[in-house]
Amino acid sequence: MSQSALFGFVAVSLAVIVVPGPSVLFAIGRAIAAGRRAALLTVLGNASGVFVQIVFIAFGLGVIVTGSDLAYTLLRTAGAAYLVWLGIDAIRQRHTAAHVVDAPVGPSATPWRDGFVVGITNPKTVVFLAALLPQYVDPGAGMVPAQMIVLGALFCLIAIASDGLWAILAAHARLWLASDPRRLTWTSVVGGLVMVGLGLLLLVG
């Protein structure tokens, strides 16, 4: 892989990732609904799910999704339904939002798991990466799957940095609103609605 190809891949990845899209809106919605820690774990989970997709693509399994309307539809429906469920759950839990800010930080895999499910069930990411990654590998250098995995890992790191920043900014706004419990309750509703809307958008998009 040449240095120019690597720089080109980074530039394209930044252009795609930095502009607010589904993963950014998901991180913002989770930050507003549940706070910074949950949002950052969700970002890590989302990137982990995308990385699993990248491994599948590197070894040829991404072709199954990109070449099958049924597989694409099933993945899209599952991911969208899960987002809607998460949004509804955030709205249902709105009255406990004020206690989340002051709650002790303990180990919890749930936000990571939620992000992972959304990341791995996003078929648009599979289609995009399946088209993008092969353009930046050097077949003559050999170990093409390994090259694709390295590029995919770089893509995920950029996504974590960008989405994490959005999540932190949204979480700061939530902490500012925490001075009034009623406002924080409504931020959970807004965050939930963002996730529901995103799920519906993915379903019909």
Question: Mind explaining what this structure looks like?
Answer:
The protein is mainly α and 205 residues long. The chain contains ten helices and no strands. α3 runs parallel beside α7. The two termini are 35 Å apart. About 5% of the residues have low confidence.
Topology (SSEs and partners):
Layout: H1 3-18, H2 22-34, H3 36-58, H4 62-66, H5 69-92, H6 97-102, H7 110-120, H8 123-132, H9 144-177, H10 181-204
Helix pairs in contact: 1-9, 2-3, 2-5, 2-9, 2-10, 3-7, 3-8, 3-9, 5-7, 5-10
Number of strands: 0
| Low-pLDDT sequence parts | 98-107
Question: How can the largest sheet be summarized?
Answer: none
Portion in strands: under 5%
Number of helices: 10
The average pLDDT is 77
The share of residues in helices is over 70%
**Category from helices, strands and their pairing:** mainly alpha
Kindly provide the radius of gyration, computed on alpha-carbon positions and rounded to a whole number of angstroms.
18 Å
